[in-house]
Request: fold
Amino acid sequence: ALRAEVDTDTCAVVMELIQGESGIWPATPAYAEAVAARCRETGALLIIDEIQTGMGRTGRMFVFEHYGIHPDIVTLAKGLAGGVPAGACLATEEAATGFQPGDHGTTFGGGPLACAAALAVLDEYEASDLVAGAAAKGAFLKERLLACAERTGAIAEVRGLGLMVGIQLKQPVASAVKTACLERGYLVYAVGDSILRLLPPLILTEDEILRFCADLEKILQEVAGA
Reply:
């Protein structure tokens, strides 16, 4: 199917290596490499959407680093400016030659406030080693969630990378769990009727992880009869 869809007439392939909105579904390394190889073979640009996965969310600055592939273009936003609306498009030198001055205009592009905020965020990332912290905290969160799964029997799968985590429930109670979490002060997303999506901030602490997992276990016992 990939060979049929991507040929020498294909300009570019846009890929989200972890599909976030649908419930945290990481691409397999084999599929990611197959897409990258097909782009090299046909001359198509490989564009990786890092708007949700980038800026250390997965324990690497960019999620494509987990896969060992090299995109031509990367899109960034969300965490880039710490809450100030900002986006960026990064490109290799070769891919960037496709743009000439005046080819693309933007009313608010390059605004001094957004740029200053993004630079401050990047300084904080380096000073606080937030990316390595996200990797360590993500591993700890997954460990505690798996322990919760074993004790409750209510969780079918824990997936994702770093602090981008999907919890597949065995019963269609995601909405009820989300509501119960919100009542306890946790922002948890429900996807469909059986998936929970966790996207905690990179400044999350281990104590907060322990408290959340303890509360989640109680919620699952209440809602799912675990």
Observations:
- The longest strand covers residues 155-161.
